[in-house]
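Record 1 of the preview.
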Amino acid sequence: MRRFALAAVSLFALTACQSGPSHLEIQAPHGPNCAAIQTASRINFSDDRADSLGRIAASPNLTEHEQIYLIDAALENAGFSSDTADVLVTLASNPALTEAARIHLAQRLDHADLFSADLKRIADALAANPPAGS
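->
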C-alpha cells in the first residue's frame, strides 16, 4: 500500500510539471516568475495585460517551465490578436528561449486564434532567434 501511495505521488509530481494543451489548469505553477505571469494574465484590459506579460517575456532568467507557462497564459487569455502576438514575439526573440518552449509555441500556434499577420510576426521572430547550436 505504501509503495502504491509513493508511486501515485511520484506520478502526480511528474505530470504536474508537464505542459499540455492547457497548462493553466495546473493549480500551483512553480518558479519565481509564475506568480507574476499568473497575475499579469488576469489583468482585464488586453493592452495592459500584454504590457505586463511582455515585460516578463523579455526576462533573461525565465525557466523553461515559466516560458511554457507564459505561452499558455498569453494564448489562454488572448485578448486582441496583436496584443497576444506582441507578447509571443517578445518571448520568441528572447535569447534564453529553450528548444522545448520553441516547440511548445509552434504547437500551440497551430490552434491559436490569431490573425495571419500576427502569426507571421511570431514565425519571423522565431526564425530570427535560432536555437543555440544552430
